[in-house]
Design brief:
Shape: globular
Distance between the termini: 71 Å
Number of strands: 0
Largest sheet: none
Structural class: mainly alpha
Radius of gyration: 24 Å
Oligomer: single chain
């Protein structure tokens, strides 16, 4: 059998050296939990060093000169110990993620998500296989990381079954799952309210009364999903797959996974789960319609020109996470009972328990992030950096589009070393959101720029936790596939995403297209 053609040394040289450098630097970084512990200690030391300095910069909230609080002072250290538990419990993203995962975990572990994805892909015409696969990959974001372990290997399976190169299917699915991680195909994901809570916390460093709507980027991320699908379709069919034609599939085909058709029990379970989901959606929509609906905000909380269902104070907007929980718990339970994967209520509780067990690492990271943010925000360093940074950027006189572009590029670079979206935004938001607010840029636009930068380089870094797993998926079909193989396949996607997604955001900003519900582009400093 013909062996894969080795890549030329000249083609691999620059990229291999770059990846080696990234890997060396990244391997020297501590675990994200330890990274935030070290950052917290650095903030303490910096607050001590600057606590005696008199700054001319004025706090925009009070008009008084900014003063740095010494976090190593006795009263600060005792307050840290006394408030450690309450700071952790008050860390908003923790509850957001855990509650959403309770419902999503049931839907995943009973088999509802698996069956729904397999059914959607099995009825797709061959000529639409690529865009359908990328669309399903983007949609898998509602189940957080389910796309990595479910959709990506399925991409290889269905391409191989269709007579196409399986690594092209893996690449297309990887583009949708990871390259388009910040996109949402109509259905909001748990990432939306989680990022919004970080954004709101950072914005309140300057404006304590500012509230960020959990769906503040929903329109932009929905349109972005269409762009991701188009990019994935074109790059896969016109660039990646023709290049892979020379790469022979030499895996043991008897051991390759197969996309089994749904069993009778699975089809029946999926049907009734979707019926239950539809009925719940219709009843929910009907409950929104009356003018006296309790889902609407009270009249005195609705600004002129706003809809009572769409303002941040509306109960429906404050219930996004709870709605995600219910709308995945219900079909998950119905599917489980009908398909036979759930026998009693104990199995449902076991599914929730299993999903929470998988969140143990996130809970550890969240503890250290919460303590870091509490110290950073309480020290006054965030306010100082925002005001001084804004003055510096004003002095440069850069056009606003260049400032937005710089934020995207910076996020993309940080993304090569820190794979977690929440960890990156926890680090960047307290600095970038107040800084951009001082320049007149709304937190909504800053968050949208972050989401673009957060996705475009993830598919290139071996430091992303799931990257080695995807290499293993490739090796099932091509034994010699390695990190260089996967990176070389994904480079065209990353380039296209970096350019076109950035242009899309600039087009939204330039034409004033709403980013989402309750979102704005400008912020007027007090």
């Amino acid at each position: 059998m013909q062996q894969p053609v080795p890549e030329a040394t000249s083609q691999r040289g620059v990229m291999s050296r770059f990846l080696d450098s990234v890997e060396r630097v990244g391997n020297r970084l501590p675990d994200p939990a330890m990274l935030f512990l070290l950052l917290m200690l650095a903030v303490w030391v910096l607050s001590w060093a600057l606590s005696g300095v008199s700054f001319q910069a004025l706090d925009p909230r009070t008009g008084d000169p900014i003063r740095i609080v010494n976090l190593l002072a006795g009263e600060s250290l005792t307050a840290f110990m006394a408030n450690m538990v309450s700071v952790f419990l008050g860390f908003a993203p923790l509850g957001v993620v855990l509650v959403a995962m309770l419902g999503l975990g049931v839907a995943e572990h009973t088999g509802f998500i698996n069956a729904a994805l397999r059914r959607a892909l099995s009825v797709t015409p061959k000529q639409l296989l690529t865009p359908a696969l990328v669309a399903v990959a983007v949609l898998s974001h509602v189940a957080v990381d389910a796309g990595y372990v479910l959709v990506i290997p399925l991409g290889g399976v269905i391409f191989y079954a269709a007579g196409r190169h399986p690594i092209a299917g893996i690449a297309a699915a990887f583009c949708g799952v990871s390259g388009g991680f910040s996109a949402t195909l109509l259905v909001p994901s748990s990432l939306d309210p989680m990022l919004a809570t970080f954004t709101q916390s950072a914005a309140q460093i300057l404006d304590p009364d500012l509230v960020v709507n959990p769906l503040n980027n929903w329109i932009f991320t929905t349109v972005s999903s269409l762009l991701i699908i188009a990019i994935g379709w074109f790059v896969t069919d016109r660039i990646v797959e023709p290049r892979l034609a020379r790469m022979q599939v030499d895996g043991d085909t008897s051991q390759l996974p197969t996309m089994e058709p749904l069993t009778v029990a699975e089809r029946r379970g999926l049907f009734w789960a979707l019926v239950a989901m539809t009925i719940a959606a219709v009843l929910f929509a009907l409950s929104l319609m009356p003018g006296t609906s309790p889902w609407r905000a009270a009249p005195h909380l609705v600004p002129d020109g706003s809809h009572p269902l769409l303002v941040a104070a509306a109960p429906v907007m404050q219930s996004i996470v709870a709605l995600i929980f219910v709308f995945f718990l219900l079909p998950g339970v119905v599917y489980g009972y009908v398909a036979g994967t759930v026998k009693t209520h104990r199995d449902v509780i076991a599914a929730m328990t299993k999903s929470m067990a998988g969140m143990g690492y996130y809970i550890v990271i969240a503890f250290f992030i919460a303590q870091f943010l509490a110290g950073f925000n309480g020290s006054g360093l965030g306010t100082l950096m925002a005001v001084e940074g804004a003055d510096f950027l004003r002095a440069l006189g850069l056009p606003m589009w260049m400032t937005i572009l710089g934020l995207i590029v910076m996020t993309g670079i940080v993304n090569l070393f820190i794979g977690s979206a929440s960890a990156k935004w926890a680090l960047l938001a307290p600095i970038m959101v107040p800084l951009m607010m001082q320049l007149g840029v709304s937190p909504d636009l800053t968050q949208a720029a972050y989401r673009v930068g957060d996705s475009m380089t993830t598919i290139l870094t071996p430091l992303m936790p799931y990257f080695p797993l995807i290499v293993v998926f490739c090796q099932r079909y091509v034994k010699s596939a390695g990190i260089g193989t996967l990176v070389s396949v994904m480079i065209p996607y990353s380039i296209a995403l970096s350019i076109l997604w950035t242009l899309l955001l600039l087009a939204f900003w330039g034409f004033g297209i709403p980013l989402g519900i309750g979102a704005s582009y400008e912020y007027a400093p007090g």
